[in-house]
Amino acid sequence: xxxxxxxxxxxxxxxxxxxxxxxxxxxxxxxxxxxxxxxxxxxxxxxxxxxxxxxxxxxxxxxxxxxxxxxxxxxxxxxxxxxxxxxxxxxxxxxxxxxxxxxxxxxxxxxxxxxxxxxxxxxxxxxxxxxxxxxxxxxxxxxxxxxxxxxxxxxxxxxxxxxxxxxxxxxxxxxxxxxxxxxxxxxxxxxxxxxxxxxxxxxxxxxxxxxxxxxxxxxxxxxxxxxxxxxxxxxxxxxxxxxxxxxxxxxxxxxxxxxxxxxxxxxxxxxxxxxxxxx
Length: 279
Prior knowledge:
By secondary structure, this protein is of the alpha/beta class. It contains 10 helices and 9 strands. Helix content is 33%, strand content 24%. It has a 9-stranded mixed beta sheet with strand order 1-2-3-5-4-6-7-8-9, with helices on both faces. The longest helix is centred in the last third of the chain and has 18 residues, at 259-276.
């Protein structure tokens, strides 16, 4: 593991790092915020944040304004890049919503993407193993949160891995990727044209057979330009209702898809995670 930069912040430490990833076939960047409690020797719970399209491991740490509250609650924050970047593939940067910075937190099965695009395995397995080994972060005390593409990734991770996360939340998630243009574009290329293979990567489809042992907290702005075409929270509400999955879906008048929206409600999300993690 290589340290790129570290910064003092609210009596904790924010660092940006690089390591060689096996599942993503090359170096990956990630960031960790350690609260003061961790610097004093305590192993603290961590919230893993999955960012959205075009973002990097820096976006959440710079824009969300989460560290002050995380410091007070004694929570570590972990964020990562949104796709492999070292393994360059033909046309991987032709589109802003597919390829570079758009890994969709799935494990690709179709060539050439299957060479490196295994973001689900990275964020649910390899990355937590690394940070729980290298930093004073508690093992098996995790929450997961995400925004947009990352909200999709967080919800899917929580449903696919019972017991791995004690809490989950999302901002403006792509709730039903099988039924929206963003998801259809990504899933057809990463997983192939057989739609049956998409079900394991679609929150609404997973809810037909799986549950999360806790409440899903989801915030959505009513002025989000992607609300009706790409996000469709009503489908998530319907799927949770049918499944009996507890869901707290909060619609916020006038808020859009930006990090201004996330910064407004991030404290609510951190406190939601903290309660589940015993902080």
